[in-house]
């Protein structure tokens, strides 16, 4: 016989989406159980995003987990685009009045876990065989196993926050779910190194050899990326090979300040654009990477996940207060924003990378677009207002 549990909202996935949802719901007394196939240490160790929009910072504040973010996050009023070594600064503050904050996803996750543990949140970690069922009924269920024992949770709602490879999206019948996808013909090789950043702001560079990005985690820790072959392995890239290629792509001007050293993390991520529609099926809601993926060029993945959670937490809180308007419009409202963020991430990726199929014509088109951005305040502003984050709705 399975062990039976009951909650209001069963949250599948303890990444930033699932943790933030449980934290925001707990603030208004809504009970959740959070499940993950991994454990806390593994989830906190995943090195991913680094740039937070103001709307994301606001949501973390509302959740009561922004103290360290305010103390340690680095506010950036701008960033640079570079093309064959020519640099152009996008002045976010002057163009939009807003800025972004550099603070790692690992830190966001740690802050959320600390808050959920302090609140005695019920978690099940290291679980397998997760299956959401009865989605169209008013008592949906989530079945899973832990250490060989079977469990079933009965709830009012299921939040599918289990990332791109999770099971929630797959629980929506094929004749209902529509998916849209573009897989890019390259990956990003990223390293972490304890050296001061090459520049105090981010630099996104397009060079004949491919894309490079200079980012950071703090004033003493740098996060650098280069475009690589989709088929490359981390072992193909020694630190020496990375540094040589990275400096070439940044251009001599920016690379003059580059301080190299031994990397302590190195990983390759594929690039993909993906959207699943709808984001609600019966009493299952999708949020974050479970519903959509963007290529990392616009720094949007985590921010988009947080935007979904702002909408979903409001929908659930209003539902328990007797108002179903937001729960009924969640999917449509979220997708409306998702597609605009997909467009920006795709456009910036298209502008900044070398595509194997590109002819010299496409390369000239990229250069012409870059020149236009450098000369037109309107074009720079269009990038800036997307980068700092579009309105929630
Ligand atoms: P996550 O973080 O993938 O968490 C999903 C959780 O679900 C668990 N899970 C399951 N649990 C139970 N049952 C199952 N069957 C399950 N299957 C999976 C997983 O173990 C995991 O704990 O999704 P979430 O919470 O939606 O968060 C999304 C963000 O993690 C993601 O969008 C960002 O990291 C994307 N991203 C960036 N976003 C930004 O906003 N700014 C950036 O600068 C940025 N840079 C990046 C990025 C992603 C990258 N990679 C590696 C994909 C840079 C990189 C390199
Ligand atoms: C990062 O610091 O990891 C980062 C920053 C900006 C991006 C993507 C990743 O666009």
Tell me what you see in this structure:
With about 400 residues, the protein is of the alpha/beta class. The protein has a domain at about 5-50 and about 105-180 and about 275-350: 3-Layer(bba) Sandwich (FAD/NAD(P)-binding domain). The protein is built from twelve helices and 21 strands. The strands form four sheets. It has an eight-stranded mixed β-sheet with strand order 7-6-15-16-17-14-18-21. The protein has a six-stranded mixed β-sheet with strand order 9-3-2-13-20-19, covered by helices on one side. Strands 1-12-11-10 form a four-stranded mixed β-sheet, with no helix packed on it.
The counted number of beta strands is 21
Ions, cofactors and other ligands present here are: 8-demethyl-8-dimethylamino-flavin-adenine-dinucleotide, P-hydroxybenzoic acid
| Main pleated-sheet profile | 8 strands, mixed
Give me the CATH architecture of one domain, please: 3-Layer(bba) Sandwich
CATH top level class name of one domain:
Alpha Beta
Specify the overall morphology: globular
Radius of gyration (CA) equals: 21 Å
Q: Helical segment tally?
A: 12
Uncertain ranges: none
Q: How far is the first residue's CA from the last residue's CA?
A: 46 Å
Q: What would CATH call the homologous superfamily of one domain?
A: FAD/NAD(P)-binding domain
Sheet with the most strands: spatial strand order: 7-6-15-16-17-14-18-21
Write down the CATH topology of one domain: FAD/NAD(P)-binding domain
Q: Approximately how much helix is present in the residues?
A: 25-40%
Mean pLDDT: 97
Structural class computed from helices and strand pairing: alpha/beta
Strand content: 25-35%
């Amino acid at each position: 016989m399975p062990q039976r549990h009951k909650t209001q909202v069963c949250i599948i996935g303890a990444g930033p989406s699932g943790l933030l949802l449980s934290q925001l719901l707990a603030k208004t007394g809504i009970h959740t159980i959070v499940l993950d196939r991994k454990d806390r240490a593994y989830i906190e160790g995943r090195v991913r995003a680094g740039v937070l929009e103001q709307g994301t910072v606001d949501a973390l504040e509302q959740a009561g987990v922004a103290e360290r973010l305010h103390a340690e996050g680095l506010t950036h009023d701008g960033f640079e685009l570079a093309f064959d070594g020519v640099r152009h600064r996008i002045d976010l503050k002057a163009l939009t009045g807003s800025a972004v904050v550099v603070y790692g996803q690992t830190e966001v996750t740690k802050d959320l876990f600390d808050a959920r543990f302090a609140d005695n949140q019920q978690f099940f970690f290291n679980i397998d065989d997760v299956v959401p069922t009865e989605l169209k009924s008013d008592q949906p269920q989530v079945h899973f196993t832990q250490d060989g024992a079977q469990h079933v949770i009965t709830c009012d709602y299921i939040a599918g926050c289990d990332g791109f490879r999770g099971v929630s999206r797959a629980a929506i019948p094929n004749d209902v779910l529509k998916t849209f996808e573009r897989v890019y013909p390259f990956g990003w090789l990223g390293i972490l190194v304890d050296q001061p950043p090459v520049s105090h702001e981010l630099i996104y560079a397009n060079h004949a050899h491919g894309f490079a990005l200079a980012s950071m985690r703090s004033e003493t820790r740098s996060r650098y990326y280069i475009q690589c072959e989709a088929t490359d392995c981390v072992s193909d890239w020694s630190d020496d090979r990375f540094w040589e290629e990275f400096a070439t792509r940044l251009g001599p001007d920016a690379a003059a300040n580059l301080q190299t050293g031994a990397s302590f993390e190195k990983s390759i991520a594929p690039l993909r654009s993906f959207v699943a529609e709808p984001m609600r099926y019966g009493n299952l809601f999708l949020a974050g990477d479970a519903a959509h993926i963007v290529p990392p060029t616009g720094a949007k993945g985590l921010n988009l996940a947080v935007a979904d959670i702002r909408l979903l937490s409001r929908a659930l809180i209003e539902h328990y207060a007797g108002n179903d308007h937001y729960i009924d419009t969640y999917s449509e409202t979220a997708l409306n924003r998702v597609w605009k963020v997909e467009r920006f991430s795709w456009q910036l990726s298209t502008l900044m990378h070398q595509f194997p199929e590109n002819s010299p014509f496409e390369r000239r088109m990229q250069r012409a677009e870059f020149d236009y951005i450098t000369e037109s305040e309107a074009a720079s502003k269009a990038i800036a207002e997307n980068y700092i984050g579009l309105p929630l709705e």
